[in-house]
Amino acid sequence: MKQIEIPQEDYEFLKELQNELNTQPSDGNAQPVYWGVLEDYEALTFEGEGEARIPHDDGAYSLEELVGEINDDSEFFSLSLKSEWNAVDKNDLDEVMDFVNKNWNERNIIGKPYWVEIKDKICRDAGAFLTKRACKEYIEKFGYNHRNPRTYAMTAYRNFELERLLNILRTIKF
Predict the structure, then answer these.
(1) How many CB atoms sit inside 10 A of residue 32's CB?
(2) pLDDT digits (tens, 9 = 90+) for 3-62
(3) Do residues 42 and 117 touch, judged by C-beta distance below 8 A?
(4) In 3D, which of 160, 157, 159, 169 has the Cα closest to residue 31?
(5) pLDDT score at 8
(6) Exposed e or buried b for every residue in 6-24, given b needs 16+ CB within 10 A?
(7) Phi/psi zone of residue 36: left (φ > 0), alpha (ψ -120 to 50 degrees), beta?
(8) Rounded Cα gap, residues 143 and 166, in angstroms
């Protein structure tokens, strides 16, 4: 049998990696498992389905955010508008949009609402991780680049090259 010489530091790393690969959860996936970052994104949907988004200069408001913006705009409200705003059902998109279009839209350009639903996707930019721990560490450091990031286990089954490498790492004798 051939021997490979590697620095002690690399030997310890491989030994610890092997232990982690053999003891980490698979989150219900067939072995071998690797990890990725799952994140949320907004997908357009049909009117009235999902959540409404109201476009404006810097992005889009949810209904709740739009109501908050209007409430915070103290310079805008005269007494008559204040009582009109107080009569608006803040949970009714149509009523809020009627008020906006009639009164507030001259100062703040607000577009026609569109609807989105929150879905999840594997983030291709984050890459793949051999361990769940490494994926969690990535999320702790760089999670601000993602929307609701979380670990996601994927199987390397039928990816013969990766399957072989992970099986070697799992079974090599140290």
Answers:
(1) 20
(2) 889 999 999 999 999 999 999 999 999 888 999 999 999 999 999 899 999 998 888 999
(3) yes
(4) 157
(5) 95
(6) eeeeeeeeeeeebeebeee
(7) beta
(8) 26
Select from 70, 48, 74, 36 the least CA-distant residue to 152: 36
Radius of gyration of the chain (CA): 26
Question: Is residue 111 within 8 Å of 54, Cβ to Cβ?
Answer: yes
Q: Give pLDDT, residue 91.
A: 94
Q: Using the 8-state DSSP alphabet, how is residue 120 labeled?
A: E
pLDDT digits (tens, 9 = 90+) for 73-129: 777 777 678 888 889 999 999 999 998 888 876 666 788 999 999 999 999 999 999
Distance of CA 136 to CAs 27, 30, 34, 83, 120, Å? 14, 20, 13, 50, 17
- The three-state secondary structure class of 110 is strand
* Mean pLDDT of the 128-148 span: 97
Distance CA 129, CA 135 (A): 6
Tokens of 134: 């490494």
pLDDT of res. 57: 82
- Residue 174 neighbours by CB under 8 Å, 6+ apart: 11, 14, 15, 18
Phi and psi at 25, nearest 5°, equal: -70, 155
